[in-house]
Structures are given as structure tokens and as C-alpha cells.
């Protein structure tokens, strides 16, 4: 029973990791400097998901990370 629970936990972690890998954080950017601020703060390092920025004035995607 204990081994079964451990295998279930590992399987859930794998599925959860795959779901995060398929996720994208959409960042709204009014002034055009959100990426620079986020890179300076180090929050874009080692993300378990992708991140993209959208210019809120033009409604166009302006960067991907």
C-alpha cells in the first residue's frame, strides 16, 4: 500500500509538471518596460512555465520568455 501511494504521488507530480510546462503567464504592459523590470528583479529566471507580454494599447504580443 505504501509503494502504491508513492507511485501515485510521483505520477501526480509528473502530470502537474507537464501542466505547468504547457501554461503561459500573460503580462499586460502599458508602458513597454515590464520585461526589463521583471528581468532586473530576476523573476523570469527558472520559470516552470512560459511568459509573454502584451502591449495593452495595441493589444499585440510584444515579447516572449
Number of H/I helices: 2
Using the CA coordinates, give the radius of gyration.
Answer: 17 Å
Report the helical percentage.
Answer: 40-55%
Described by the principal axes of the CA atoms, the overall outline is elongated
Element-level helix/strand string: HEHEE
Give the biggest sheet: 3 strands, mixed
Give a structural overview.
This protein has 65 residues and is an alpha+beta fold. The chain has a domain at 24-65. Helices cover 43% and strands 26% of the residues. The protein has two helices and three strands. The chain has a three-stranded mixed beta sheet with strand order 1-2-3, with no helix packed on it. A hairpin with a 4-residue loop joins strand 2 and strand 3 (60-64). It is elongated and about 55 Å long. The mean pLDDT is 76.
SSE layout:
Blueprint: H1 2-21, E1 24-29, H2 34-41, E2 50-55, E3 60-64
Parallel strand pairs: 1-2
Antiparallel strand pairs: 2-3
Question: Summarize this, please?
Answer:
The chain is an alpha+beta fold. It is built from two helices and three strands; from the N terminus they run H-E-H-E-E. Helix 2 (34-41) links the parallel strand 1 and strand 2 (50-55).
Features:
single chain; 65 residues; alpha+beta; three-stranded mixed sheet; 26% strand
